[in-house]
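Predict structure. Chain length: 706.
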Amino acid sequence: MSVEYVDRYDSEPERYEWSESRRYRFEVDRRDFIRLFGGGLLVVVAVSDVLAQESGPGGSAQSRRATPELAAWLHIDEAGHVTACTGKVELGQNIRTSLSQVVADELRVPLSSVTLLMGDTDKTPFDMGTFGSRTIPTMAPQMARAASVAREMLIDQAAERWQLGRQVLTARDGHIETTDGRSMSFGELTKGRALTGTIAPDGPIDGHDRWKVRGTAAKKVDGPAFVTGRHQYTPDVVRPDMMFGRIIRPDAYGASLATVDDARARAIAGVTVVRDGDFLGVVAPTERVAARAASALKATWLAPEGQPSSETLFDYLKEHPDGHDAAPAVATPMPPAVTRTFEATYRIPYIAHVPLEPRAAVAEWRDGKLTVWTGTQRPWGVRGELAQAFRVPEDGVRVIVPDTGSAYGGKHTGEVAIEAARLARAVNRPVKLVWTRAEEFTWAYFRPAGVIDVKSGIDAHGRIVAWLFDNWNSGGAGLQSPYDVAVRNVVFHPVTSPLRQGSYRALASTANHYAREMHMDTMARAVGIDAVEFRMRHLRDERIRAVLQAAANKIGWPKPSAAGRALGIACGTEKGGYVATAAEVSKNADGFKVERIAIAFECGAIVNPDGLHNQVEGSVVQGLGGALFEAIEFANGRLRNATMALYRVPRFSDVPPIDVVLLDRPDLPSAGAGEASLVCVAPAIGSAVRAFGTVDTALPIRLRHA
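Prediction complete.
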């Protein structure tokens, strides 16, 4: 950035403390400030406060250095335009719009005046990652505080200019106005100045009653660029003198490279073959030439024998506890009140994330620094992986995250970034590497498979008095039941997974909700109590009761809309969101068809109802895949369905009408929405299908016989 403004300011750092209630305190070198942002107003946060937010305390010692790049949160330039900075990234969840609404609202500027700078390890504050539905609950308040600090600083500046008391000044529409009609724009107030303030960790922000932009269905920021294809993703990045890479992969998991015949590949003009141990790749002038060179290269691999298959998976999981972390299943006796017991085993397969955009990275080494553009949920995590892989300081690595074409928890790691950087270093030129769809299926990680054993007991009055729940491998998210049960023993058992596994949208909450809600359905049917009523008898939390009743009302419970159809319902809570999903299904020659879904969702105060509606609807569609189709098939270290032709995801024809009911709670803090709305899709469908026969307890749902 140009430093032409330096002569306009003193060369000494300015130290200043506002006297009024010590609202702001800052100590900054103006030269650094100017170099980064030019003139205007800058809001920063103390490093200790950055690391105290939900994104800390991660990061290395280098991550914790107090640099302006790290600490900058919001800047208002001399034209009055606002740039807000966040380490969060845009994955299609539209947080660019919702966070911009927060800033615009708190700062009192039009939404069009706000630009969000996201996910750049050199320019935005440290952030552990974009996951766990944490953006709105934790980042929105932080950005609101930054905007609040800026607004109050501007009011103080105007008070000084006009020699007026603050009580007669108001921020509105990008201006500070007086009660007697005078007005000065934010740009006028910041012009020719370098004003810096810091965010107090507990600084005041507007209550819901003062929201103007928040709570409205603001249109997607830069929406036309997305629908016309102008918006840039990682595969669209172009660098000067850039080349293209391909990796030659093993033919099985755990295989080592035995022999390589690269003569034909090297004979292709412009091709470089890169080998480092078992790492083998090619670099070429174009994508097509890179693909041809990869096909021309012949490699043989040595693979281990005797690996488990999808057919033997569930026995394998129970037989391979993860060492010292494993907790044995404990036999808990049923209490004397139990008059009837229920036992079942629920089996959850591995499933793939199937992001629209496969993993991609562009890597460039220049002047001793590595810069990587890549789609990831964890820019600083990937920076750390790169620094470790190449044994360079973290401040010698920059990770920039263009908007990413979906992730669903599947892009936490930096393998494609490391591969692109290895190729780029070998040829001393920028290299773009985009995984094929087959690579994305095979070499990314999966949602964990699992086995869940449930045993429950009810008393003579139809009340659950015992609940025993053992989960092998799926995970602990959503493990605890929301139902009121006197005796419970809930345990997660870590397992040595035969396939690479990791985060997936809603984590294990989908598996745990499926087992729990299907088991609730079993008990309700057995004792002849309506499924909604049975749940209500065991729920104390009014928030979950509210969504359950709303979903039931929307679907028309308990009567389906037509003959030959059946209804099912499920409810739960995850990441601070409360959800109930109802499904209407019909029977046909192929088994059954989902005719309609109704979902009620509550996540506190709603920031953008249109964005929230889209998130909920998208979760339902994704949930249909896991409920009806998706399961990784494998044997001997090889996938058997690693293509879109063989791995079924929901199609347009599979998606029924979806009725979304949003319960706004302006009296409560906003919670995340990207995950909780997924977790009850499968059990709602499963419970409805049971009306037509026996449902296998394994996902995806299958009607075994009529």
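Summary: The longest helix spans residues 135-162.
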